[in-house]
Amino acid sequence: MSAHHEVGGALPPHAETATLEGKNKVMGFWLFLGGECVLFGTLFATFIALRNQVPDGPTGQEIFQLGTVALSTFILLTSSLTSVFGTMALHRGKLNQLLMWMTITILLGLAFLGLEIYEFKEYVHEGHVFSKSAFATSFYTLVGFHGAHVAFGVLWIALLIISSFKKGLTVVTAPKFYVAGLYWHFIDVVWVFIFTVVYLLGKVGP
């Protein structure tokens, strides 16, 4: 049977690691996420050190809109759930279900990015621009860097969906969807820390 056809139950259990190539992709991606953790850890440490450095600009207490941020958080966490459903469909060898859940994940990711852009525009209107203070610079660097990761994840999953129409769901393509799901969970977890450290603590104040 050709490896390039999706047949319910035809894929081996845990198709994403059924081959040596698949195992290497997953292992390599875990190493990549380790490096990403170090990078985000550095950005978090920088933000925490500079969060009170606001000589003449607005503070987090003054500008943060927790309602908007809470909605963004809900959307992104929901997208993590839909990507879980996608992974479950992957394990069952159901390409159509996988594509449906990953498409919903993309749409939720786009909604999150739209809210973040709206949020940033509101902050700029309040005078909270990148160069206003050390707090502003560290804030936009951390939150913007995360937003760039979300945008990359949206593009990555979209390209996988497009390529799947030609290649189907196989032991070659399954690891690609699997690691994309891991990546999406990672950026969701990072956002939980951003929501807590940046927004909630920022709203409470020093």
Automatic annotation (TrEMBL):
Residues 27-203 form the Heme-copper oxidase subunit III family profile domain. SUPFAM superfamilies: Cytochrome c oxidase subunit III-like. One of its GO terms (cellular component) is plasma membrane. Keywords: Cell membrane, Membrane, Transmembrane, Transmembrane helix. The chain crosses the membrane at residues 29-51, 63-86, 98-118, 139-162, 182-202. One of its GO terms (biological process) is aerobic electron transport chain. The keyword Cell division does not apply. This is Cytochrome (Ubi)quinol oxidase subunit III. It comes from Paenibacillus rigui.
